[in-house]
Protein backbone atom coordinates (compact mmCIF):
# COMPACT_ATOMS: atom_id res chain seq x y z
CA UNK A 1 0.00 0.00 0.00
CA UNK A 2 1.46 3.34 -1.09
CA UNK A 3 0.64 6.83 0.12
CA UNK A 4 -1.82 7.12 -2.78
CA UNK A 5 -3.46 3.83 -1.77
CA UNK A 6 -4.02 5.11 1.76
CA UNK A 7 -5.70 8.23 0.43
CA UNK A 8 -7.91 6.14 -1.87
CA UNK A 9 -8.83 3.44 0.67
CA UNK A 10 -12.55 3.07 1.44
CA UNK A 11 -13.61 5.18 4.40
CA UNK A 12 -16.46 4.94 6.81
CA UNK A 13 -19.16 7.45 5.87
CA UNK A 14 -19.05 10.35 8.36
CA UNK A 15 -21.99 10.08 10.73
CA UNK A 16 -22.59 6.39 10.00
CA UNK A 17 -24.43 4.74 12.87
CA UNK A 18 -22.61 1.42 12.79
CA UNK A 19 -18.82 1.44 13.21
CA UNK A 20 -16.77 -0.99 11.11
CA UNK A 21 -15.89 -4.34 12.62
CA UNK A 22 -12.46 -4.17 14.24
CA UNK A 23 -10.17 -7.17 14.13
CA UNK A 24 -7.19 -7.61 16.48
CA UNK A 25 -3.91 -9.16 15.41
CA UNK A 26 -1.15 -10.64 17.53
CA UNK A 27 1.72 -8.21 17.97
CA UNK A 28 5.33 -8.51 19.09
CA UNK A 29 6.65 -5.92 21.51
CA UNK A 30 9.95 -5.20 23.25
CA UNK A 31 10.07 -3.42 26.60
CA UNK A 32 12.69 -2.29 29.11
CA UNK A 33 11.87 -2.26 32.83
CA UNK A 34 12.17 1.09 34.67
CA UNK A 35 14.72 -0.36 37.09
CA UNK A 36 16.85 2.79 36.94
CA UNK A 37 14.11 5.27 36.04
CA UNK A 38 14.36 8.71 37.58
CA UNK A 39 14.15 12.33 36.43
CA UNK A 40 17.67 13.61 36.87
CA UNK A 41 17.70 16.01 33.92
CA UNK A 42 15.06 17.92 31.93
CA UNK A 43 15.00 17.46 28.15
CA UNK A 44 11.27 17.90 27.53
CA UNK A 45 8.51 20.07 29.07
CA UNK A 46 7.14 17.17 31.13
CA UNK A 47 10.35 16.66 33.11
CA UNK A 48 10.92 18.47 36.41
CA UNK A 49 14.01 17.49 38.39
CA UNK A 50 12.45 18.81 41.60
CA UNK A 51 9.68 16.21 41.45
CA UNK A 52 10.28 12.97 43.36
CA UNK A 53 10.00 9.73 41.40
CA UNK A 54 8.75 6.57 43.09
CA UNK A 55 10.71 3.88 41.25
CA UNK A 56 8.77 1.08 42.91
CA UNK A 57 5.46 2.55 41.75
CA UNK A 58 6.86 3.17 38.28
CA UNK A 59 7.88 -0.48 38.05
CA UNK A 60 4.46 -1.70 39.21
CA UNK A 61 2.69 0.51 36.66
CA UNK A 62 5.02 -0.68 33.92
CA UNK A 63 4.45 -4.31 34.96
CA UNK A 64 0.69 -3.79 34.67
CA UNK A 65 1.23 -2.62 31.09
CA UNK A 66 3.39 -5.65 30.30
CA UNK A 67 0.84 -8.04 31.80
CA UNK A 68 -1.95 -6.36 29.84
CA UNK A 69 -0.14 -7.08 26.59
CA UNK A 70 0.38 -10.69 27.61
CA UNK A 71 -3.27 -11.12 28.58
CA UNK A 72 -4.23 -9.83 25.13
CA UNK A 73 -2.09 -12.59 23.64
CA UNK A 74 0.81 -10.48 22.45
CA UNK A 75 4.46 -11.48 22.65
CA UNK A 76 6.58 -9.31 24.93
CA UNK A 77 10.37 -9.53 24.94
CA UNK A 78 12.49 -7.79 27.55
CA UNK A 79 15.58 -5.70 26.98
CA UNK A 80 17.98 -5.45 29.92
CA UNK A 81 18.02 -1.97 31.50
CA UNK A 82 21.40 -0.30 31.97
CA UNK A 83 22.45 1.75 34.98
CA UNK A 84 23.01 5.40 34.06
CA UNK A 85 20.32 5.36 31.35
CA UNK A 86 17.17 6.38 33.26
CA UNK A 87 15.11 6.99 30.10
CA UNK A 88 15.78 3.55 28.64
CA UNK A 89 12.30 2.51 29.84
CA UNK A 90 10.98 4.50 26.87
CA UNK A 91 11.81 1.63 24.54
CA UNK A 92 9.95 3.04 21.54
CA UNK A 93 12.76 5.53 21.02
CA UNK A 94 15.32 2.77 20.57
CA UNK A 95 14.85 2.40 16.83
CA UNK A 96 12.57 0.97 14.17
CA UNK A 97 12.09 -2.57 12.89
CA UNK A 98 9.87 -3.37 9.92
CA UNK A 99 10.01 -5.57 6.81
CA UNK A 100 13.04 -7.37 8.20
CA UNK A 101 15.02 -4.13 8.33
CA UNK A 102 16.11 -2.05 11.31
CA UNK A 103 17.17 1.52 11.98
CA UNK A 104 19.21 2.50 15.02
CA UNK A 105 18.19 5.61 16.91
CA UNK A 106 20.47 8.65 16.90
CA UNK A 107 19.41 10.72 19.89
CA UNK A 108 19.35 14.50 20.03
CA UNK A 109 20.49 14.77 23.65
CA UNK A 110 23.74 13.23 24.94
CA UNK A 111 21.96 11.99 28.08
CA UNK A 112 20.22 9.34 25.97
CA UNK A 113 23.00 8.57 23.47
CA UNK A 114 24.02 5.36 25.25
CA UNK A 115 20.62 3.82 24.58
CA UNK A 116 21.39 3.54 20.85
CA UNK A 117 24.09 0.92 21.33
CA UNK A 118 21.97 -1.06 23.78
CA UNK A 119 19.01 -1.31 21.42
CA UNK A 120 21.22 -1.92 18.38
CA UNK A 121 22.86 -4.82 20.22
CA UNK A 122 19.41 -6.28 21.00
CA UNK A 123 18.38 -5.96 17.35
CA UNK A 124 21.57 -7.66 16.21
CA UNK A 125 21.02 -10.57 18.60
CA UNK A 126 17.59 -11.01 17.06
CA UNK A 127 18.88 -11.31 13.52
CA UNK A 128 18.69 -7.70 12.31
CA UNK A 129 21.46 -5.63 10.77
CA UNK A 130 20.55 -2.21 12.17
CA UNK A 131 21.49 0.75 9.99
CA UNK A 132 22.56 4.15 11.29
CA UNK A 133 21.36 7.53 10.04
CA UNK A 134 23.59 10.58 9.70
CA UNK A 135 20.86 12.83 11.06
CA UNK A 136 19.07 12.50 14.36
CA UNK A 137 16.12 10.12 14.59
CA UNK A 138 14.45 8.93 17.76
CA UNK A 139 12.99 5.66 16.56
CA UNK A 140 9.29 4.95 16.96
CA UNK A 141 8.90 8.11 18.94
CA UNK A 142 8.84 9.85 15.56
CA UNK A 143 8.34 6.92 13.16
CA UNK A 144 4.92 5.26 13.10
CA UNK A 145 3.92 2.55 10.63
CA UNK A 146 0.42 2.81 9.14
CA UNK A 147 -0.20 -0.05 6.75
CA UNK A 148 2.80 0.03 4.45
CA UNK A 149 3.75 3.68 4.91
CA UNK A 150 5.63 5.48 7.67
CA UNK A 151 4.41 8.68 9.27
CA UNK A 152 7.50 10.58 10.40
CA UNK A 153 7.61 13.49 12.82
CA UNK A 154 10.14 16.31 12.90
CA UNK A 155 10.58 19.69 14.53
CA UNK A 156 11.96 18.86 17.96
CA UNK A 157 13.89 15.58 18.02
CA UNK A 158 14.09 13.80 14.66
CA UNK A 159 15.58 15.88 11.85
CA UNK A 160 13.64 16.18 8.61
CA UNK A 161 16.70 15.06 6.64
CA UNK A 162 16.62 11.71 8.45
CA UNK A 163 13.28 10.89 6.81
CA UNK A 164 14.93 10.45 3.42
CA UNK A 165 17.55 8.19 4.94
CA UNK A 166 14.90 6.10 6.68
CA UNK A 167 12.80 5.77 3.52
CA UNK A 168 15.88 4.42 1.71
CA UNK A 169 16.80 2.00 4.51
CA UNK A 170 13.29 0.64 5.02
CA UNK A 171 12.30 0.92 1.34
CA UNK A 172 8.95 2.35 2.40
CA UNK A 173 7.15 5.61 1.61
CA UNK A 174 7.64 8.18 4.38
CA UNK A 175 5.22 11.05 5.07
CA UNK A 176 6.86 13.95 6.92
CA UNK A 177 4.81 15.76 9.57
CA UNK A 178 5.97 18.89 11.37
CA UNK A 179 5.37 19.18 15.11
CA UNK A 180 5.03 22.73 16.45
CA UNK A 181 4.12 22.41 20.15
CA UNK A 182 7.09 21.46 22.38
CA UNK A 183 4.79 19.59 24.77
CA UNK A 184 4.28 17.14 21.89
CA UNK A 185 7.93 16.72 21.10
CA UNK A 186 7.58 13.27 19.50
CA UNK A 187 5.02 12.18 16.93
CA UNK A 188 3.79 9.40 19.22
CA UNK A 189 2.68 11.98 21.78
CA UNK A 190 0.35 13.63 19.25
CA UNK A 191 -0.77 10.79 16.99
CA UNK A 192 -1.83 7.18 17.54
CA UNK A 193 -2.03 4.46 14.89
CA UNK A 194 -5.20 2.45 15.46
CA UNK A 195 -5.12 0.09 12.47
CA UNK A 196 -3.73 -0.04 8.92
CA UNK A 197 -5.94 2.84 7.75
CA UNK A 198 -7.06 4.60 10.92
CA UNK A 199 -5.32 7.15 13.14
CA UNK A 200 -6.19 9.52 15.96
CA UNK A 201 -4.36 12.81 16.44
CA UNK A 202 -4.31 16.19 18.15
CA UNK A 203 -4.47 18.84 15.37
CA UNK A 204 -2.89 21.79 17.29
CA UNK A 205 0.34 19.80 17.68
CA UNK A 206 0.97 20.03 13.92
CA UNK A 207 1.78 22.79 11.46
CA UNK A 208 -0.97 23.86 9.05
CA UNK A 209 0.55 22.01 6.05
CA UNK A 210 0.91 18.84 8.12
CA UNK A 211 -2.71 19.03 9.30
CA UNK A 212 -3.77 19.38 5.68
CA UNK A 213 -1.72 16.35 4.78
CA UNK A 214 -3.29 14.27 7.55
CA UNK A 215 -6.79 15.31 6.49
CA UNK A 216 -6.05 14.24 2.93
CA UNK A 217 -4.67 10.84 3.97
CA UNK A 218 -7.06 10.13 6.86
CA UNK A 219 -10.31 12.08 6.41
CA UNK A 220 -12.04 9.94 9.04
CA UNK A 221 -9.31 10.24 11.65
CA UNK A 222 -10.33 10.71 15.26
CA UNK A 223 -9.48 14.24 16.39
CA UNK A 224 -8.68 14.26 20.09
CA UNK A 225 -9.31 17.25 22.36
CA UNK A 226 -6.86 19.12 24.56
CA UNK A 227 -7.91 17.50 27.84
CA UNK A 228 -6.92 14.06 26.55
CA UNK A 229 -3.87 15.25 24.64
CA UNK A 230 -2.48 16.97 27.74
CA UNK A 231 -2.38 13.65 29.63
CA UNK A 232 -0.56 12.07 26.67
CA UNK A 233 -3.73 10.19 25.78
CA UNK A 234 -2.51 9.68 22.23
CA UNK A 235 0.56 7.85 23.45
CA UNK A 236 -1.34 4.63 22.89
CA UNK A 237 -0.84 1.16 21.41
CA UNK A 238 -3.46 -0.63 19.30
CA UNK A 239 -3.71 -4.17 17.93
CA UNK A 240 -6.53 -3.20 15.59
CA UNK A 241 -9.27 -3.68 18.20
CA UNK A 242 -7.82 -3.26 21.68
CA UNK A 243 -6.32 0.17 22.31
CA UNK A 244 -4.13 0.43 25.41
CA UNK A 245 -4.00 4.08 26.44
CA UNK A 246 -3.43 6.29 29.51
CA UNK A 247 -6.32 5.84 31.94
CA UNK A 248 -6.78 9.60 32.33
CA UNK A 249 -7.73 10.02 28.65
CA UNK A 250 -11.41 9.28 29.27
CA UNK A 251 -12.75 11.41 26.42
CA UNK A 252 -10.52 9.68 23.89
CA UNK A 253 -11.59 6.32 25.32
CA UNK A 254 -15.22 7.19 24.59
CA UNK A 255 -14.32 8.26 21.05
CA UNK A 256 -12.62 4.89 20.56
CA UNK A 257 -15.69 3.00 21.78
CA UNK A 258 -17.89 4.94 19.38
CA UNK A 259 -15.53 4.02 16.53
CA UNK A 260 -15.70 0.32 17.38
CA UNK A 261 -12.43 -0.03 19.26
CA UNK A 262 -12.02 -1.46 22.77
CA UNK A 263 -10.11 1.01 25.01
CA UNK A 264 -8.06 -0.33 27.91
CA UNK A 265 -6.91 2.36 30.33
CA UNK A 266 -3.57 1.96 32.14
CA UNK A 267 -2.23 4.27 34.85
CA UNK A 268 1.36 5.21 33.99
CA UNK A 269 1.30 8.47 35.94
CA UNK A 270 4.75 7.90 37.43
CA UNK A 271 6.35 7.38 34.04
CA UNK A 272 4.55 10.47 32.74
CA UNK A 273 6.97 12.45 34.91
CA UNK A 274 9.63 11.62 32.33
CA UNK A 275 7.41 12.61 29.41
CA UNK A 276 6.23 9.19 28.31
CA UNK A 277 3.35 6.77 28.59
CA UNK A 278 2.05 3.58 26.94
CA UNK A 279 3.56 3.88 23.47
CA UNK A 280 6.81 5.36 24.73
CA UNK A 281 7.31 2.19 26.78
CA UNK A 282 6.56 -0.09 23.83
CA UNK A 283 8.87 -0.84 20.92
CA UNK A 284 6.82 -2.72 18.33
CA UNK A 285 8.62 -5.28 16.20
CA UNK A 286 6.73 -5.03 12.94
CA UNK A 287 6.64 -8.02 10.56
TrEMBL record:
Q: Which SUPFAM superfamilies match?
A: Pentein
Q: Which Pfam families match?
A: DDAH_eukar (PF19420)
Taxonomically, which superkingdom?
A: Bacteria
Annotated spans, Disordered = 1-21
- Which PANTHER family does the UniProt entry name for this protein? ARGININE DEIMINASE
Q: Spell out the protein name for this chain.
A: Arginine deiminase family protein
Give the source lineage, highest ranks first: Bacteria, Bacillati, Actinomycetota, Actinomycetes, Mycobacteriales
